[in-house]
Specification:
By secondary structure, the chain is an all-alpha fold. Helix content is about 85%, strand content about 0%.
Length: about 170
Amino acid sequence: MLKLAGALCILLSGTLFGFFQAQQLSRRPQQIRRLIQALQRLETEISYGFTHLPDALDIIARQTAEPLAGIFREMAAGLAVMSGHSVKEVWQSAVIGGWKKTSMKDAEKEILLQIGFTLGLTGREDQVKHLRLGIRQLQAEEELAREEQQRYEKMWKSLGLLAGALVVILIY
């Protein structure tokens, strides 16, 4: 009886791990899409709303779902305080600190970090130009993420179950 309970726990653990990995794959394109929408809103706030960057980031944080909202909220808070740090440093700190909570990969992180190099330093038109470039790059990454999801999502679900079954067979 105890062996059967242990075998079921191992099988369940492997299956849940596979489903967790598949869920990470399905979240990535959704989060990239939300990031694109947030950057488009930021572009609108900068170009048409003439909103100051900390206020614009605060507005974006309120309109965006977690975990991206936390990143934008941290950026807005850091810029509001501005304790001797540049916009780039606050931007990088917020992105790096909040990135662990997302399902996105380093490619999207690098695109977002590159946007931080120009925000607050250049003119309004140049900032909008860099935001649009970042948005186009993120759209390409979103397409790759969707392809990756279609290719590997079922595989992870099956692999988790099969790995759990293999461990049970090897133990017993």
